[in-house]
Amino acid sequence: MDCGFQIITDSTCDLPKSWLAKHPFVTVVDVPVIVTKGSESHILRDLGPNDFYAAEVFVEQGFRASTSHPAMYSSGPEAGASISVEDIVRKNVAESKDVIYIVMNSALSGAYGTATPLFQSLQKEYGDNGRRIICVDSRCMSTGLALLLLDIADGVKDGSLQNVDQIAEFVERHRDHIGHYFTWGELSYIKKSGRVGAIGAILGNFLGIRLVCSAQYCDDGERRLELLTPTHSHVSSMIKVRGIGKWAEVIGTYAERHIVNPNGKIIIAHGNVPRDAHIVESHLRKHLPNARYIIGDDWRCGAGIQAHGGPTSIHVNFHVDGVERLDKTIEEICQIIHGISR
User: Fold this and answer.
1) DSSP string covering 191-228, please?
2) CATH class as words, domain 177-341
3) Model confidence over 180-215: pLDDT tens digits?
4) What is the pTM of this model?
5) Which residues of the chain form CATH 3.30.1180.10?
6) Could you give the residue ranges of the DSSP H alpha helices within the chain?
7) Which of 33, 160, 180, 296 satisfies CB 3.0 to 4.6 Å to 155 for a cystine?
8) Contact 235, 227 (CB under 8 A)
9) What backbone torsions phi and psi does residue 23 show, to the nearest 5 degrees?
10) Which fold has domain 5-176?
């Protein structure tokens, strides 16, 4: 489909290659995985979900896995990058296309802050030729960003989104209605982030503890991925349940209360635990039997997301009536867990 514009987004959106092949107006830029131990570091590029083993080899040797920014500038310091955001913009402008970069959540990555001056400069350079070159903060990450892009693709297909300004307005209007809920079956990666202590991680792994986590607005007004705690002040109070089935029941109850459309999209993605993903699906179907479930071998948490949560990551995304503040979500989740446990 030649629509006169190109959308750029980050590989942390975790859109399957099969979907991207059918939507050539979306270009994904690589977010490399960085493994670091002391002064030694290695940059791992273009890793797919099944390629995370390349980073795990280092993790097993005591390295810490994290992610870097996409390569922004054509002559930037990102040696070895296959193509930069600037390269993509200039290529599409040469083909008389406008460009919009829908960037991963600025509260979780500095990519938006780096992209903004670049896009301002490019707009100034090409604006006299009638081109529009803009970037917008998605306030989403991983399959939450994927869900937002699925909605945009629907709008492009039905003709309701015909240019980059309309797409930017759509993102700003709908980004706060993308619910993102996640957990892990193995907590060592989260332990390295400092959010879970060593003893808590060992006990959690042994007892099958599942943390209940979400992307909510915090007291500072930023939307971040947060471990939910009743006081939001210390890790020992983290909201948790035992087993993937109980976790799925909590999310299913919450989804039934807050999903915008009971027949709408629900993404269930995993790092490398398909069995857990299907358990989650079966529980959610009890609450929302007519929803459009997006799940399968293609829908995976990519290497960039696994770098932070590990291969046992589970993500669930759906459209919500509104992303509430962290304290309100915590209160409701606690009530749901109490009701299920009675």
Assistant:
1) HHTTSS-HHHHHHHHHHTEEE-EEEEE-TTS-EEEEE-
2) alpha beta
3) 998 988 777 766 655 444 444 444 454 577 888 887
4) 0.89
5) 177-341
6) 17-22, 53-59, 85-94, 111-126, 143-158, 164-174, 188-192, 198-207, 244-258, 274-287, 303-309, 326-341
7) 160
8) yes
9) -130, 70
10) Rossmann fold (3.40.50)
